[in-house]
Hints:
By secondary structure, the protein is an alpha+beta fold. It has one domain (71-281). It has five helices and 13 strands. It has a six-stranded antiparallel beta sheet with strand order 1-13-3-11-6-5. It has a five-stranded antiparallel beta sheet with strand order 2-12-4-8-7, covered by helices on one side. The termini are far apart.
Amino acid sequence: MALSAPRDQHTTDTVLNARSDARAQGGQSTEWMPYLPASSSPFAPAGTDPASLVWGEVVAPGGYTHKVVARGTRIRFDDPTGNACANLVVYNALEPTERLNVADTQKIPWQAYLGAGHPLLSGDGRVLASIVADTSGRHDAFCGTSTDAWNERKYGDSRPEGPTPSGRGLLVKAAAKHGLGRRDLPPSISLFQGVRVDSDGQLGWQGSAGARTYVELVAELPLLVLVANVAHPLDPRTDYVVGPLHVHAWRGRATGPTDARFGTAPELERAYLNTIDYAEARGL
């Protein structure tokens, strides 16, 4: 992190001095930040044109982010260390009452485990986003994220500004940036820390697939994206273990009839057709 030079007591004693002081801080940076412009991100995914990026950010361990993206935007999450855990909620940015429905996300494709080709569905029978690439294969659509009560019991603290924030607490903060409250937050999914159901119906934490894995989504509608990067609630380690998360996005296209995933099941094809109908009716 770049540090500012020592400041004397007169630095902000007048409006003009305060303005000069504020502008002098403009060149400072931290390793946890959104890059503006996004093309300035030093972590742009290989094979992408940095000039095409509309989002570039490093989310701190125990941090959160939020962004509105256009239909067709391709969103990539990278786990550089093997310890990231991206707890994700998506909304229809045009009508945020339409939001991720984890039950339908598992039910419509007849598959509870997330991976390439998997749709993220709303409760209105539309596809909000599709997973189009996945080198991790370790994800969770069962547990949701950690709560304040859970973290207080396990770590002794859950404050968003503390050392062990809960995912729910951070998602509440992210949602508030867009006029949404606690009642607007559905259960989330998490990327990079896997959970499987064993033969006795117990949920088993698998951990990550290791460092330098990624997941890519395509936004099937304009999306509000909320992300909390926190330790998974089933992580058996007593320490609060979570690593940095890289997020990048660039313009692309939404799923259409020529894409293989469009017709993989009749239920899914109807969901994509519902999505296209909604988008076309709104001139998207």
